[in-house]
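Suppose you are handed only these lines of text.
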Amino acid sequence: MAEEESLARPFYTVLILAFVCSALVAGAAVGLRPRQEANRDIDRQKNILYAAGLYDPAKSIPEMFAPIETRVVELATGEFVPEEIIRPENYRQLKAALSEDMGRALNKEEDLARVRRQEKYSLVYLVKNGEEIQQIVLPVRGKGLWSTMYAYVALDGDLATIRGVSFYQHGETPGLGGEVENPRWQGEWRGKKVYNEQGGFSLKFAKGEAATTEPAKSYEIDGLSGATLTTKGVDNLMEFWFGDHGFKPLFARLKNSKPSKG
Ligand SMILES: Cc1cc2nc3c(=O)[nH]c(=O)nc-3n(C[C@H](O)[C@H](O)[C@H](O)COP(=O)(O)O)c2cc1C
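From them, the structure of the protein bound to flavin mononucleotide can be written out as follows.
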């Protein structure tokens, strides 16, 4: 009898230990979730500030982000959606793209960025001076060679000139396509024109070095060396998000609502 008990004891010890450990791991996962989400939010804010050229490592990110207005826009119409209908802080854009009512499947001709599904509503971030929009920061994404690349693009108040870009997530090869995250290359985007005078998409990625003389200089960015396919992906995603299925209806609406100067 005593022998049976001593044989069963290690079994029960292991069982209790496994139970306690799994409870600890599950508790930690649940308990840390709010902190993970808060960190994700801070990281998103940092990337938006970086694209807008407003990031200063010496300052607090929430403080720098506080004056930026977050809005939800209906992509098809370019209309801002009232907060009572979609609250920007609760809106999960990538989840929306996958849902039946908040997203839609893109057909092959439409899907230049190769995202397959697109959300009907997008978050946009406005940097304002009073009522005047100084910059508008837009979330974009699209397929490179190996992965979907995610970025924010900051556009000047003229709604044509790039203020900055921040590629913050991708799975391209480090040193090749992974150079999308190189600050030197991202710095080259500043001042380039997405649209020409006629309003057509004009941004170009050179094979190698971009033009150094006008007018091509205003529209061209260096292609990433040894990463033609990633560069093509960046070109395509920019054309998609700055086209009719992306933010173009929003820009048209903002231009119409702008009080004319002079
Ligand atoms: C291991 C490996 C990783 C690669 N990673 C990339 C990449 O991330 N992006 C890319 O465009 N090309 C990548 N390539 C190169 C492509 O296969 C292709 O050769 C290249 O895009 C052609 O660009 P180029 O004309 O500038 O050489 C990779 C190739 C190898 C062998």
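What can we learn from it? The helical segments are 2-51, 61-65, 93-98, 183-187, 228-241, 248-257. The radius of gyration is 24 Å.
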